[in-house]
Design a protein that fits this description.
This protein is an alpha/beta fold. The protein has 2 domains: 2-155 and 332-346, Rossmann fold (3-Layer(aba) Sandwich); 158-326, Rossmann fold (3-Layer(aba) Sandwich), CATH 3.40.50.2000. Helices cover 41% and strands 18% of the residues. It is built from 13 helices and 13 strands. Strands 3-2-1-4-5-6-7 form a 7-stranded parallel sheet, with helices on both faces. Helix 1 links the parallel strand 1 and strand 2. Helix 1 crosses helix 13 and helix 3 (64-77) packs parallel to helix 4 (92-99). The radius of gyration is 21 Å and the shape is globular. The two termini are 38 Å apart.
Length: 357
């Protein structure tokens, strides 16, 4: 049995949980049962809705050291031997304390802190540039198993073996703004598109609202008032929806890797520090980066629409973007991670220790 420690709520969105769900699904396909450990009821409900068991610590997601009093007995009582941890709130002390009791796997995005773990996963497009091996050799007695690069992007099965096709006429646009969309970017984009009059009347806009989006009713109201606006929540077959679309507007999270596997030309933007490197790396290679919407909302929205127009007007531009995107990954990352987790579970590696000199 595998255990995953992850959270998702209106403050941090659903990204951590959703990518771990993909790994759990891959483990399930290999006959392995996965149980999630989470901090609060909001996270627990989302996990349960995806069909996985969950242990709710009833702690604060941002105070990982504070949860140790609850977590360590859970590790012991459930005979947990391996734990995948996906949180930005971990500390060195937390990883050391947990690592004394179980094999630890850390899902990293930033590479800012080197933690004593048995395995580290960073599937981001910029991950190979971080230099994990050199950093670990400097700080630790042993380099952990490193799963680095887009080949480990934990996408769902539906994003594998996609047959991409670029249509001559672009008529459908996907808008996805993350799990919570705290700035209501989706709503603001729809308002600008509505106010543009006849310019976009021939385009169908498909808006995906995340599980923690508090602005869903405002989006529904815009949908009722505009026949070319379509709002979706709790989408079960995202690949099917994406396949209908010719262009996407997306916040820079795991969705960027899903869109890449589908070859959907994308205008991206970011609103959090942990998304900046994703946006910049995709902007340099396969997407159009409109910038930081949290610090320059009006300017970023203006750039989004300008880039959208460029894609809508040019088949060649969309075709080139599609060809570059599908070369990034094959969608089989979750399976690769699952196989490596099973290997780790069976291994008898020594625990790592931090250098103190």
């Amino acid at each position: 049995m595998f255990y995953i420690r992850a959270d998702g709520n209106t403050k941090i969105g659903a990204g951590h949980i959703m990518r771990c769900i993909s790994i759990a699904e891959a483990l399930k396909n290999r006959g392995k049962v996965t149980i999630f450990i989470t901090a609060d009821e909001e996270s627990a409900k989302l996990i349960s809705s995806k069909g996985f068991g969950v242990l709710n610590l009833k702690t604060k997601y941002y105070d990982m050291d504070g949860e140790l009093e609850m977590l360590l007995p859970v590790l012991k009582d459930n005979d947990i031997e391996t734990l995948l941890i996906d949180s930005y709130s971990v500390t060195t002390n937390y990883m050391q304390q947990v690592g004394k009791r179980v094999k630890t796997i850390y899902m990293d995005d930033l590479g800012e802190t080197i933690y004593p773990v048995d395995m580290l996963i960073n599937y981001n497009i910029y991950a190979p540039e971080i230099g994990y091996e050199e950093k670990y050799k400097f700080r630790l007695m042993k380099v952990p198993q490193l799963l680095i690069g887009c080949e480990y992007a934990p996408l769902r099965v539906e994003f594998q073996t996609i047959d991409t096709k670029v249509r001559r006429m672009a008529k459908d646009v996907l808008i996805t703004t993350g799990g919570s969309d705290p700035q209501n970017i989706a709503g603001k984009l729809l308002e600008v598109l509505r106010d543009a009059g006849m310019k976009y009347r021939g385009i169908q806009f498909h808006v995906v609202s995340g599980a923690f989006n508090k602005n869903i009713e405002k989006l529904r109201e815009l949908e009722r008032e505009n026949t070319n606006f379509h709002v979706y929540q709790n989408v079960r077959h995202m690949a099917e929806l994406m396949k209908k679309c010719d262009v996407a507007i997306a916040a820079c999270g795991s969705t960027m890797y899903e869109l890449s596997s589908m070859g959907i030309p994308t205008v991206c933007y970011f609103f959090a520090d942990n998304q900046k490197m994703v946006a910049e790396s995709f902007g340099k290679s396969v997407a159009l980066n409109a910038g930081d919407i949290s610090s320059d909302e009006s300017g970023t929205i203006e750039r989004i629409l300008g880039y959208l127009d460029s894609y809508l007007d040019s088949y060649d531009m969309r075709n080139t973007a599609c060809e570059k995107m599908v070369q990034l990954l094959d969608g089989d990352g979750a399976s690769r991670i699952a196989d490596r987790l099973i290997q780790l579970e069976r291994s008898r590696d020594d625990k790592m220790e931090l250098r103190i000199d």
